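As practice, study what follows.
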Amino acid sequence: MTMRPSLWRILSRISEKPGSNPTSPDEKSAGSWLPAMGLRLTEWFERWFPDAFALALAGVGIVFAACVAIGSPVIQTAQWFGAGFWDLVPFTMQMTMIIVTGYAVATAPPVYFIIRRMAHVPKNGKSAAAFVALFSMLSSLISWSFSLIFSGLLAREVTHRVKGADYRAVGAAAYLGIGSVWALGLSSSAALIMAAPASLPQSIMQISGVIPLGQTLGLWQSVLIAAVLILISMPIAYYSHPATAHARSIEDMGVKYEPAATQSGKPEKPGEWLEYSPLLTLLISALGAAYLIREMADKGLSSLLELNHYIFAFLIVGLILHWRPGFFVQAVSAAVPSVAGVLVQYPLYAGIVKMMTESGLAKELAHFFVTVSTQHTFPVLVGIYSAVLGLFVPSAGGKWLIEAPYMLDAGKTLHVHLGWVVQTYNATEALANLIHPFWMLPLLGILGLKARDIVGYSTLQFVVHVPIVLFLVWILNYTLQYVAPSIP
């Protein structure tokens, strides 16, 4: 009697390469089904996933077609794209400065020494992936930009030191912070916008008023989601790491390892004396520190979480840690290749945002999800909408300004806790990051990889995260009572 083949065997046969032997010793050596699935996903994405720039161009085409399909004139839609192309220039510069200054801080000898010491903690490939994943997620709760830069450097150092560590799996683990819990932490764009009257647009203010952080980030339900995601993501990173026979090192991926902290040079001409003297460093650092202290005195400690202040603080800290201007410039020069993808791709997404908002496409999508919602299903549908929109508008703050008027107004009508609407957005907005290369770009620049190299492992996390996050935002909604907003 012939037994029906298992589902796993069917999937294996479907995904195998032509002419390959599905029962080869190499496949058996992959271990359990989880690392085997990770390898298969990675192999598929390496073969079929387009470059991040090509994906951005495809996104422009898809949104353009959708806008035209709902009745927007072709020429007008093209005009929106061209006009919107420049809307994210300040944000693009901010992201560039975050990468450059963050890299300068991370590669300063004192900090880089700590990173290298941390890299000695894991002893094998599996523990390397879990360790980097934990650091990435915990650090992202403090700052997503800190997490991206430092986790990328840590992943590189760990993979260089740990024999049998897979550069792709560990690199994907370094991305877990921005792909899971960052928006539930202190740098949450939506929560910070809602808590600051000065940054809250009047169109949102008149609907919800100010929502303090205690009603968003401070909710125990929000903390619980972050804890669950961390506790689930680490084992996935650990068990999905391939066996040594299948692991690909830095060298296997065609990346040459070089220590990041290299300070060299000395003044050879009188005009070069200032480049290697700490006098200017001390002067500029004192001025910068005075500015930041004054800002905190006027606006409170939370003002340091503002993006511009955060970047400025990194600039000052980087100068101090490198001590001499010449060494700081060397670190900045080393960071520049990491920002190439940001400079050329972020403006494309700005054009996408402009087309979606001006054509009414974003409003139509929001209206659809709102009209089919009830008080109890609203968080789930908001989550699905946020995750889908995140594929085309991968900017948490910018996307929230698009969604907030519709989401908060519907939350009021359905008597859903408005702080939970914000946190539902935060928890689900990050899901799209796991399969979208937009936020991968700074990390990929540091790792020297392409999106297709790590997206297979991040997709494995995505498949698990989606049902868990949607379930949690739904069930925890039952534990919250609606409170009418106080509108000035």
Notes: The chain has one domain: 52-255+280-479. Confidence is low (pLDDT under 50) at residues 1-27. Residues 52-255+280-479 form one domain.
